[in-house]
Design brief:
The structure is a homodimer of 155-residue chains. Chain A is built from 7 helices and 2 strands; from the N terminus they run H-H-H-H-H-E-E-H-H. Chain A is mostly helical. Chain A has a domain of 102 residues: Arc Repressor Mutant, subunit A (Orthogonal Bundle). In chain A, strands 1-2 form a two-stranded antiparallel sheet. The longest helix of chain A is centred in the C-terminal third of the chain and has 22 residues. The radius of gyration of chain A is 19 Å and the shape is globular. Chains A and B meet through helix 1, helix 2, helix 3, helix 6 and helix 7 of A and helix 1, helix 2, helix 3, helix 6 and helix 7 of B. Chain A binds a DNA duplex (23 and 23 nucleotides) through helix 5.
DNA sequence: TATTGTTATACTCTATAACTATA
DNA sequence: TATAGTTATAGAGTATAACAATA
């Protein structure tokens, strides 16, 4: 049996020194996830940049723009334009925080909630592509490990 | 004991609906890894965009530019400018492929190899930051799971 | 005809600094 | 003084189309 015809061309890179580095594996996995996510969100007029803003607002966390910038690792000025866009579409609203009148708390509209629920289904379905080789237990394990990387104290 | 003072502010997002989505965890983990990687590579005049090119070339895989575009998920025109930069610094060289004179095979110079070995050490050290909460077994497990996402057949 | 590398171009994203209003 | 949001701007990254050389 000719094993060389079985091994796909991808294995050439999969076995490379680079592919042993977590940073490369994270980058490539994220690139695949990004492409799938953007494709799924296009139908809702959202992108992987705007969707997380809508998601956190619709999760009733009442985040301020500053908090969004921190958790999404965006510059505060970028949050401004993303919030402008979503507010312009009537999906979320800015509310001046009573306890600190500098801050603006973000809350969802009914239309925002409705769109979010549909968009979220699409995002979860789109993840199926990159994750297709992992069973349910492996996906949970991957999520738990990644959560500890993403929210490592001090980062 | 006041447990609210122990739970860091990050847990507010860590427990959000968004933080259960693999795509978000990948994006945030990658963002942290990217920042750490760029900081470590700055001393070598490299970035997280150029380092993988040098790495695959120095791993003696003799990749063509087209192959680099595929594995690094870059447009072929982006590979041109990255290769221009590394070749201009005398770190790699273009060689016309004898079997297909359209293709250019990339090979390292002695200077390229030397820089790569140092840069690689710095990259591995920089990964320590985001991964600090995972022990050796967990890092291996994470890498194995991510490799199956990054190189899922059909992607 | 199709593919590799290249050039050119426009668009998106990111980083920085300065400004305002509040604290 | 310091911080939240805002504006403006420049730089880096990305996507697209067209072209020459080769298959």
């Amino acid at each position: 049996m000719d094993t060389t015809s079985i091994s796909s061309e991808a294995s050439r890179w999969e076995a490379s020194t680079l592919a042993s580095e977590l940073s490369f594996l994270l980058a490539r996995s994220n690139a695949l996830s990004l492409a799938a996510g953007n494709a799924a969100l296009r139908a809702f007029g959202l992108k992987v940049r705007s969707y997380p803003v809508l998601a956190l607002v619709c999760d009733d966390l009442r985040p301020t723009q500053r908090e969004l910038a921190d958790v999404l690792r965006l510059d505060p000025s970028q949050v401004v334009s993303l919030v402008d866009e979503l507010e312009g579409r009537g999906l979320i609203e800015r509310q001046v925080d009573d306890r600190d009148r500098r801050a603006k708390v973000l809350v969802p509209t009914a239309a925002g909630r409705a769109l979010y629920l549909d968009a979220r289904d699409a995002v979860l379905a789109a993840e199926e592509g990159p994750l297709r080789d992992l069973d349910a237990a492996e996906r949970t394990l991957l999520a738990d490990l990644l959560r500890r990387v993403a929210f490592a104290p001090g980062e």
